[in-house]
Structures are given as C-alpha cells and as structure tokens.
UniProtKB/TrEMBL annotation:
It comes from Gloeothece verrucosa (strain PCC 7822) (Cyanothece sp. (strain PCC 7822)). InterPro entries: HotDog_dom_sf. This is 4-hydroxybenzoyl-CoA thioesterase. It comes from the Bacteria. Gene3D superfamilies: Hotdog Thioesterase. Pfam families: 4HBT_2.
Amino acid sequence: MKAYEYLHIVSFEETNLVGNVYYANYVRWQGRCREMFLKDHAPEIIKELSQGLALVTVRVSCEYYSELFAFDQVVIRMRLKELLQNRITMLFEYWRIRDEGEELVAKGEQQAACMRREEEKTVPTAVPIPLKEALECYRA
C-alpha cells in the first residue's frame, strides 16, 4: 500500500516534563501531514481554502504504542481509508526511524468534511476533483 510520508524530528517544545512527547502533538502532526500532502499533491486546493472551501476536522483519534522523545525521527505515513460524499477519512501510522529499522509507535485516524462558507453559514460541498484524484493514489 502506497502512503504519503511526512518526516518529522521531535523537538524539546513537543515534550513534557517527563521528557516524552506530549500526546496532543501526535494529532498536531496529523494536521501537518495533511497540509504537506495538499502542498505536494493538490496545491490548487490551498487557493480554494482562501476562497470559501473549508476542510473541517470532525473526528480524530490516536492509539499510542511506544513513547517518542526529543530528537527522535518519526515518519508519519498517511493513507486514504474512505472517501464518501463530502467526508474524507485518513489513516495515520507513526514510525520511529532507528539505525536498526523502524518501530511503529502510534496509529491514528482523522475524518474531515468538505464544507463551503456561504455568507454566515457553512454548508457541505463535494470533495474537489483535484483533491479526490490526489487522494485515490493513497487508498488503503
């Protein structure tokens, strides 16, 4: 299965007093991975976001298997789980990169709804074709 990959190096600011990565950062990284995917594979969507399109996160989850620490290298792999009407569900895997190989440290899922801002309300809208085409290459 092909996955979009975002490489991240953990910084001190992402850790807590104990020294491990604070759990909420994994969700932040999902968002960062999603943004980099748009930049790399559907840049026209970025312009649409400034013209009323909204990708609204409606559900997010993360399961943790092992701790990450400052300066760990982690690759976040994102795949399309489902594209249904105006909803996009993505799967995320977090892999620590070490000299001896990779270790799965967490898994996550995120669902976003495609919406359009119209005056004072937000209404559902179809997933834009360029985004749909870009995502299909990464279907799980």
